[in-house]
Design brief:
With 573 residues, this protein is α/β, with parallel strands linked by helices. The chain has 23 helices and 16 strands. The chain has three domains: 123 residues, Glucose Oxidase, domain 1; 108 residues, PtsI, HPr-binding domain (Enzyme I, Chain A, domain 2, Orthogonal Bundle), CATH 1.10.274; 223 residues, Phosphoenolpyruvate-binding domains (TIM Barrel, Alpha-Beta Barrel). The chain binds phosphoenolpyruvate (PEP) and magnesium ion (MG).
Length: 573
Amino acid sequence: MVENLKGIAASDGIAIAKAYLLVEPDLTFDKFSVENSDSEIERLKQALNKATQELELIRGKAVETLGEEEAQVFDAHLMVLSDPELIGSIESNIRDNKVNAESALKEVTDMFIGIFEGMEDNPYMQERAADIKDVTKRVLSHLLGVRLPNPSMIDEEVIVIAHDLTPSDTAQLNRKFVKAFVTDIGGRTSHSAIMARSLEIPAIVGTKEITALVKENDMIIVDGLEGDVLVHPENTDISFYEDKASKFAGQKAEWEKLKNEKTYTADGKHIELAANIGTPKDLAGVKNNGGEAIGLYRTEFLYMDSPDFPTEEAQFEAYKAILEGMGDKAVVVRTMDIGGDKELPYLTLPHEMNPFLGYRAIRICLAEQDMFRTQLRALLRASVFGKLRIMFPMIATLGEFRDAKGILLEEKEKLVKEGVEVSNDIEVGIMIEIPAAAVLADRFAKEVDFFSIGTNDLIQYTMAADRMNERVSYLYQPYNPSILRLIKNVIDASHKEGKWTGMCGEMAGDQTAVPLLMGLGLDEFSMSASSILKTRSLMKRLDTTKMAELAEKAINDCDTAEEVVKLVEEYTK
Ligand code: PEP
Ligand code: MG
């Protein structure tokens, strides 16, 4: 029988395929005594062999898809598997205590993990502890005869089902085989959802119960346009959605005709439609979707994709590649925004109750300046290869902006003294994601070159509703008049000082929000590349004077987000 499930539509498109469960299997076991230690040691050896073969395969795949450096983590795992001291201790434990292999393995590895984790000031040993944990899980899975999921090993068309996907899980998904993904938790602006849009993989998040409902290989339909999931569809459902998928493909082909055009409104005003990217690899998507600039490069993904802090040289190469790739088109590079849902395996941050309100982004950069200075130097060196704009994230106070800009100028001066060429034409701006900065925009506008409104965070902080939490997603209201008033305040403040305002939060590509933002006079819209062409098509139909009237009414006459949506519908009919 077909079962329907509703979630949050996170990335457009329709997919029909069988389920691949990316869910941690149950690795619990009982401890019991064994008479024949030799056969238990033999079981252990077989599990170790299978784990080694599996890891070698995974390593080979990782080299192919991610490169030799990224694959190094698996070398460390293979070393653990062949470590004579560790394996010898497990075998002695089985022999001396006459216990089953699972419990001997767990006891010994827990002991090593405990010792290594205790060396708090030694990041190398912390990493070894993490390696042993991973390897223990793999060997246990073979002892227990259960499969450990591994997204990089997927080699047939599937829909990935997971409780949650971290940004690094998402980065590993192979577009060729992963036709869509569906998760229990998350919101439209969680980073895995944002990445799904960059990768153009249909996605539905926040279904609450997909992992409880679906079994491996169940047939599934994902409608990423509406947020609908169908499990065990009937033949009629399959033909209905095949038809819908081909209509959607037709619609996309229509939009594609606008690829080489600039964006003009019905009354002939040019608006810049830019793209958000996470890696230099995303440039192809920007070109294919007719991006007029890069409005946000989330540099933290460079840090997340690297086994250790990326060197100045590695960063320079990435920034240069993007600037050169975009030619004379502007590239807004945001300095590192780690924290919240974006973690670095090699930067151990203290556990916090509220990571989104905690130690993240510019707060880390101003406290741990070596890392920040390295990034700024790489950016400054790359600045001569294109039209660079530098943007600081999560600015709450003018003091933070002044400090960050001060460090940038110091590094620039040093480079110039060293004889390195640096552009004198770099605009320096901030993200407006914290309500305090939105309210004080008139003061900021005197000192910054531009604003870019980060609505993903601005909405969560204004509405006090976690952007990742599907239970409060009803409060995540881009069209709430309170949010529109904050946006208006920022745009007006910048224009008064002759500066410009862009938006790089997901709201910029939201088809209901676009008419309102046009009316408010937003200068640049930056979004997932896959949203650019449909937005261009929408803007072509809209008149800015009429949209200004709409925005004024929404701000002055509406009490609720629902009223605003109705008004937008009336004005854009
Ligand atoms: C935002 O907060 O709107 C934004 C663009 O930044 P991020 O989604 O990376 O937090
Ligand atoms: Mg943000």
